[in-house]
UniProtKB/TrEMBL annotation:
Top-level EC class as recorded in UniProt: transferase
SUPFAM superfamilies: S-adenosyl-L-methionine-dependent methyltransferases
Protein's name according to its UniProt entry: Class I SAM-dependent methyltransferase
Domain of life of the source: Bacteria
Annotated Pfam families: Methyltransf_11
An annotated GO BP: methylation
Naturally occurring in which organism (per UniProt): Streptomyces bullii
UniProt-listed Enzyme Commission number(s): 2.1.1.-
InterPro entries in UniProt: Methyltransf_11, SAM-dependent_MTases_sf
Every Methyltransferase type domain range: 94-186
Region (Disordered): 1-41
Ranges annotated as biased composition (Basic residues): 1-12
Length: 287
């Protein structure tokens, strides 16, 4: 899970050695087009460089074996969006954009048979560090290295879909590897957030951009090469992408900010969470 619009340049606080270039200038934030190839290259590199800091900063909130759908803290234990936990036993589940595979670890504890996939080798090294007896696969979500009908369920908590230029390519691939009757549940930044600054305080409550501007958010180096890319789709775009890819949309969940959650995570905060949604979760079925 990770939406870092406007935050990618922060310095690491972890004491472990990290894969990082010598001190480089802060990337320039802009809005411009970025195709499938550039987006994938930029985000693989970004997550490899920033995985250590991400896990240091957010690992406690995510836990080692919890299934959290977003910064609000909605937990699959209560949400049951993949189905009742007792029905997960024996199910083969693909987690897309798994990071350190916290969700897969929870699934394994329910008796499911997860496979954790991520584009970032370094994120999967954190999955190895924490441990688990399920496969870890380093691959692009737009070209899944699995046979047709290999999985009963697929899930993604802020993985892949916010970062890809062609979400339909990913959705079609997920549909291909799901068995008939299989379910895909994925969470992304709520599209309305793109109209507001990515700030947790009061400045994040004033509309500053058009909700309808689909131009990607890009951070680029001095040569103009993208080092981080995030793509905006409106709520309607997401619905059309799901349907056009052959899924049936059965629910859209917009978690409310719970009283217990006092954390800030990038632009997510109790202040904003009480007023505007921060996460959209799409529940889809492959008939």
């Amino acid at each position: 899970m990770g939406h870092h619009r406007g935050r990618a340049g922060r310095k690491s606080t972890t004491k472990e050695p990290i894969i990082q270039e010598p001190e480089a200038p802060e990337p320039e934030a802009t809005r411009r087009d970025a195709d499938v190839t550039e987006s994938a290259r930029a985000n693989r590199g970004w997550w490899d460089r920033n995985a250590d800091e991400y896990q240091t900063e957010h690992g406690t909130f995510l836990g080692d074996d919890r299934f959290v759908w977003g910064p609000e803290g909605l937990d699959e234990v209560e949400a049951e969006l993949l189905g009742p936990p007792e029905e997960l036993k024996g199910r083969v589940v693909l987690e897309i954009g798994a990071g350190a595979a916290q969700c897969s670890r929870w699934l394994a504890a329910q008796g499911a048979r997860p496979v954790a996939l991520d584009i970032s080798h370094r994120q999967l090294q954190h999955a190895l560090r924490i441990g688990g007896s399920f496969p870890l696969v380093c691959a692009d979500a737009g070209a899944l290295p699995f046979a047709d009908g290999s999985f009963d369920l697929a899930c993604s908590a802020y993985g892949a879909l916010p970062f890809v230029a062609d979400p339909r390519q990913v959705l079609r691939e997920v549909r291909r590897v799901l068995r008939p009757g299989g379910r895909l549940v994925f969470s992304v930044t709520h599209p309305i957030r793109w109209a507001f600054p990515d700030e947790p305080g009061p400045e994040g409550l004033t509309v500053s951009a058009s909700y309808f501007d689909r131009t990607p958010y890009v951070e680029q180096d001095e040569e103009g090469r993208a080092v981080y890319v995030e793509h905006h789709r409106t709520l309607g775009d997401r619905v059309r992408d799901i349907v056009a890819s052959g899924f049936r949309l059965v629910d859209v969940v917009e978690p409310e900010w719970p009283v217990w959650n006092t954390s800030e995570w990038g632009g997510w905060s109790p202040l904003r969470g009480n007023l505007i949604p921060g996460t959209a979760i799409f529940v889809c079925v492959r008939d």
